[in-house]
Amino acid sequence: MAGRTGFYEKCLGDMAGVYRDERAFDAAVAAHGADHLVYRVEEHRSGDGPGALIIGTSTVLPGRYGDEFAVTRGHLHARPDRAELYHCLSGSGVLLMETLDGRSRAVPLTPGRPCTCPGTGCTAA
Ligand SMILES: [Fe+2]
């Protein structure tokens, strides 16, 4: 998408504490460096304030740290009743979702299979 309004990247140095296997993670940092790119996010905001549509494009680069594949840091919404739609453009992956009360769910991501995360839980479309 053209006209992004925001952009950020996360490198290995930003991912401490995310992976279970700390030894594998530390070995990856030693091998590739703390500035090794893990993922990037482009943001497109239609405006500010309530009702503004936000579209984010996340690109997760291939990577494996022990038995875990590369992941994003994940996030919580400031307003938890806000739904979110994930649509995989290419490649494959898994969307991991967790509610504040500890329920979790993993949904495969493949091109053409959208996944909706309503504010009250998570379902795959
Ligand atoms: Fe979100």
Task: Provide tags for this entry.
single chain, 125 residues, mainly beta, Jelly Rolls, 2 domains, 3-stranded antiparallel β-sheet, 1 helix, binds fe (ii) ion
Ligand set:
fe (ii) ion
Strand residue content: 35-45%
Q: Largest sheet at a glance? A: 3 strands, antiparallel
Helical segment tally? 1
Strand order of the largest sheet: 1-2-3
Number of strands: 10
Q: What is the CATH C-level name of the largest domain?
A: Mainly Beta
Q: What can you see in these coordinates?
A:
The longest helix has 11 residues, at about 20-30. The chain folds into two domains: about 1-75, Sandwich (Jelly Rolls); about 75-125, no CATH class. The protein is mainly β and about 120 residues long. Strand 7 (about 95-100) and strand 8 form a beta hairpin. The radius of gyration is 16 Å and the shape is globular. It contains one helix and ten strands; from the N terminus they run βαβββββββββ. The protein has one helix at about 20-30, and strands spanning about 5-10, 35-45, 55-60, 65, 70, 85, 95-100, 105-110, 115, 125. It starts with 5 loop residues before the first strand and ends with a strand. A three-stranded antiparallel β-sheet has the order 1-2-3, with no helix packed on it. Strands 6-9-10 form a three-stranded antiparallel β-sheet, with no helix packed on it. About 10% of the residues lie in helices and about 35% in strands. Fe (ii) ion binds near residues 75, 77 and 84.
